[in-house]
Amino acid sequence: MTDRPRSTWCRDAILPGIALACVLGTAIGAEAQALKEVQTPDTLLVLKAQGSFFVGGDKTDQTDVELGNLGPAGHIAVNQMYVRFMVPQDGADNVPVVMVHGATLTGKSWETTPDGRMGWDEYFVRKGHPVYVPDQVGRGRSGFNQAVFNNVRAGKAAAADQPALFRFSDEVVWPNFRFGLKPGVPFLDSQFPASAVDELAKQGVPDVSRLLPTPNPTFKALTDLATQLRGAVLMGHSQSGAFPLEAALLNPAASRALVLVEPGRCPDTYTAEQIKVLATVPILAVFGDHRDTPTGISIRPSWQLSFEGCQALLGRIKAAGGDTRMLNPADQGIRGNSHMIMQDKNNQQIADLILQWIDAHVGKRSGGNK
Amino acid sequence: MTDRPRSTWCRDAILPGIALACVLGTAIGAEAQALKEVQTPDTLLVLKAQGSFFVGGDKTDQTDVELGNLGPAGHIAVNQMYVRFMVPQDGADNVPVVMVHGATLTGKSWETTPDGRMGWDEYFVRKGHPVYVPDQVGRGRSGFNQAVFNNVRAGKAAAADQPALFRFSDEVVWPNFRFGLKPGVPFLDSQFPASAVDELAKQGVPDVSRLLPTPNPTFKALTDLATQLRGAVLMGHSQSGAFPLEAALLNPAASRALVLVEPGRCPDTYTAEQIKVLATVPILAVFGDHRDTPTGISIRPSWQLSFEGCQALLGRIKAAGGDTRMLNPADQGIRGNSHMIMQDKNNQQIADLILQWIDAHVGKRSGGNK
């Protein structure tokens, strides 16, 4: 789709004043967002605190081979979850929001958008909420357990023992993330910044989900994080869209609300008892537009099926007395939103709808916190 | 070294008020830093901007197998470098500082310390410098090219074709990072927060350096970043300690200064012409204490050898007219600093020495920037 020589030329030519010509010269700009595309907000960001920490983690002992032969056998930490946070100046009374990313991605999903606009992490902080952005266990700065790969390399395990590492191709992303039916041809009303699709591609990392123990340690880590925060709104996206439900089942008291953004699948196997627990927590599901687009991948023929599955689950929870809502912006005339709705050009408009729902259904936090 | 049942118990008991007893009850606390250990600064942090973006990156076409069979063959982005940044309120006139992490680690190295104190990223921002923290190409949020692993899994490549993925064991870290001669026994004057070694362990991620093309794409990405910033101080640590030298050779004009923090190795192969180029950029090398400690790993018998190699290189550069300095805090009576000097208990004291050197040798930036 993009010819290699030109792409290489573009990379070499990324110097002030030259980059733009390069972008215009290629079908999908290989350097649509250099640093210079990043926008500076009009007003200062005043933080009470920012930083990062880990939640959870296990010690495991590994052989010299499993450690890559850098030294003798010993212990390492695995299954920990990296979390970056920002707390606004006057946010102590507002409920924290935890934002979890989707498949083949990291917490970067919620930061500066591919075309350089403010991410939801900062936007929610500016609206007064402490924000916590993890990398799922096994992804990005959370690391993963490399032992099996080194064992396979050394002939101590069968090649089939190491799990597949997933990536979405740029071509699959167009229909699957609903930017357009075909690569390079955005929907006429598409809200995704089409010129920045190549920058989105750079957010891709290998997805080692199949390497993780069952249940996925991220569920427990999210529960522990919400507990340590003395209550939080848990927001998941795509692959992690249903993670907040799993976390809430482990400790519903710490889950002040669940926001399921374009979940890949809402479970249809919860028992009546589990539904009763979920009915104690306000739940919002948010979906974009063009959900009938054929995705071209086998695990999800269309996102409309995900929508209908979540509608059914939230219906069950509502019938059990729960406070649930399906938010479909297209119903309000807001058209063209993609799967990467937090990066869409109208991402602040969508964020405002979620913030209004949080204000109305969650209220202030009880008792201050850092 | 740490018994597994107790470690698990600690993980399960991480609730307010219970965690501390848990930490005290285990030789190396499995939960030394939960969120509650993270300290809130006394004064607000006022930012002109913060966010993240990518530098560089190549498009590569991959088969369905190489993509993990999530969809058909297509293109993905590889070799990009993730960068997170913070720009202080009044930092436009101060030179930006780029902080690159070491082996088996990510940009997290420079963030909140394992025991919850402010990292150098925020400290340098509070001292007026815009700060840019990358994940090296192939690490953390920069992702890596997973193709060969999926080919090996599918029997389309030999197991030996996939590179070893490195990790340091907790036991190796004690002598190698110079916390103490033996695991669990810190030097009497150690500046590293010994109770938080298990939290440092959580910063470990698989190191895929052997997967990368030659030269390491991080060199070019650092140069491009410095160029886009219209000049920056490039700071490397350990594995990346010498990266600033490589970046400066690609574009010395964009490298306002180089700070080599505990570099694993200073190259001894530079030509006279390369030395002449490096002599145009101020260079500071910083080393901690206890450098004679036997590390127990083959690639580096002791850090004193690294110190002497850098002393020799900086001597050559100085002889060519360069502005170089070996900073050995122990010479000033500041004892006990470790390899993870940016996380040591006196990390702000060390940072101040570096900031003073930057002030004296680099000066203000020429022309404003974001």
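The CA atoms of residues 189 and 219 of chain A lie 36 Å apart.
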